[in-house]
Design a protein that fits this description.
Length: 468
């Protein structure tokens, strides 16, 4: 009779686990919704034109790391060039591209080699040359050998950056014109305290873009893309804004994020030892915040839509991406495990870290094992059918409810989704449990296995050709 008792114990434990997780999600979604409303009201009252014209506004070095982005680099670069911001330089880092990325850049920028001072403060790999645009003198291109992942590319840009703030933008991201203006206006309020800041971005798949400007927001109805849009809303609105309220935000995303350059120097730049760079840097920055507690440093998330990035459009590409994401989470939690429930780290230690440990690291095992054994218990007659289906209904509805809270908050403030697409997202939330959730679980399991066998490569999925 050991197996029936085991099934019952696992049922009780997993049910308690999912109740706790659901309450945590709903609490975060509610906190995030109120925080979004508060931040949005502040944004509506902000006089951005005054900030733009102020002689005291802060200069920014924008770094665009790129590897084999011949189809996206021009639109991404033009969207940065079109930013509504008074003073910035652009540093594009060509990380050993084997396609026509460099040729495309050269055709647009009319590049010429320069003999510039380049001091290696950060681990970057071998730089082959530094070039300046004859057409746009504020744009520099660093041509380097491939290696050291994206972190090495950004570090190369850091070695050349001259301004007080660093903004990192992915080469497949198209920014909104006011993206930098809005986050830097927030920084201006507390320049001595805000050391890192990010904002929401969604998926560009399906959009029509011309010269770096979005001319038609045709959100993709491909369910793989649509589910990622739900995840982005759930992540940025439902968790990161709530964590940000308590200075416990765990990731200034690599697609668009701003850091203070002097703090980046103190931190030693991005680490090339990890699978990805952004999560680990943010955790390291929180460690830095605690070690400099008297300065009151903050790492914030803003509710504005800063831009749009390309996401995987098929299952295999999605699994490859989430495998990589899972590995860096496992690596980061292992390195910074001393923060977990450590009183020195406040809300980050007690509010954010347990979530990452119990859900992001171990959650997939709890979910898969519990559902498998509970299902086996029902099939073998150890659990009543009503109990079994109530268990599954609770899991389905709890996830859908937390997603709907975030979607409702998002559409109330950012009216960029058409009614038809909102209804499509709502419908998808009720069937996510039956297939998409298990694709993500599979990717997490694969990522954990690869982490255990010490795989640290930055795997890129193969993208489909863009429609002309």
């Amino acid at each position: 009779m050991f197996f029936p008792k085991l099934v019952y114990i696992i049922f009780v434990v997993s049910f308690g686990y999912f109740i706790t997780l659901t309450l945590y999600y709903i609490s975060l979604a509610l906190i995030g919704s109120f925080e979004e409303a508060r931040r949005s009201r502040q944004g509506e009252e902000e006089d951005y034109s005054r900030f733009y014209l102020s002689p005291l506004n802060m200069s920014v070095s924008i770094i665009i790391p790129t590897h084999n982005e011949e189809e996206w680099i021009i639109d991404s670069l033009k969207s940065v060039m079109n930013l509504n911001y008074p003073e910035f330089e652009i540093i594009v880092v060509n990380d050993g591209s084997t396609d026509k990325t460099f040729e495309v850049l050269n055709d647009m920028l009319k590049l010429r080699p320069i003999d510039a001072m380049y001091i290696k403060h950060y681990k970057d790999g071998r730089v082959r040359g530094i070039l300046k645009s004859e057409t746009f003198p504020y744009i520099t291109v660093i041509d380097k050998d491939a290696g050291h992942k994206k972190a090495g590319s950004v570090n190369a840009g850091l070695n050349m950056a001259k301004n007080d703030y660093i903004c990192v933008v992915d080469a497949d991201t198209v920014l909104e014109r006011d993206a930098l203006l809005k986050v830097m206006a927030q920084v201006e309020k507390e320049p001595d305290k805000i050391i890192g800041i990010g904002s929401y971005f969604g998926l560009v798949n399906g959009f029509k873009i011309k010269d770096g400007t979005i001319v038609d927001r045709s959100f993709s109805y491909n369910p793989i893309i649509a589910y990622q849009n739900i995840e982005y809303i759930r992540s940025f609105i439902g968790t990161r804004l709530a964590w940000s309220k308590y200075n416990a935000m765990p990731n200034v995303a690599g697609g668009f994020g701003v850091w203070r350059r002097d703090v980046m120097y103190e931190l030693g730049g991005y680490s090339t030892e990890f699978t990805c760079e952004d999560v680990e840097l943010t955790f390291r920055a929180h460690d830095y915040v605690v070690k400099n507690k008297e300065k009151g440093y903050k790492i914030l998330m803003m509710p504005y839509c800063s831009g749009w990035t390309e996401g995987p459009s098929n299952i295999l590409s999605l699994i490859l991406q989430r495998n990589r994401w899972q590995r860096v989470i496992d690596e980061t939690i292992l390195k910074y495990r001393y923060m977990i429930c450590n009183p020195k780290y406040g809300f980050f230690g007690f509010f954010t870290m347990p979530y990452f440990l119990l859900y992001e690291v171990f959650g997939v095992f709890v979910e898969v094992v519990s559902i498998a054994l509970v299902a086996a218990g029902w099939i073998m007659g150890f659990l009543q059918r009503d109990v079994f289906f109530a268990y599954f209904a609770f899991m389905l509805l709890s996830q859908a409810f937390s997603s709907l809270l975030c979607i409702l908050s998002f559409i109330e403030r950012d009216r960029i989704l058409k009614v038809r697409y909102v209804m499509y997202l709502v419908m998808l939330t009720f069937v996510e449990f039956f297939w998409y959730r298990w694709i993500i679980s599979l990717a997490k399991l694969m990522g954990t296995f690869d982490f255990l066998r010490k795989k640290r490569s930055y795997d890129m999925y193969v993208r489909p050709k863009r429609a002309s």
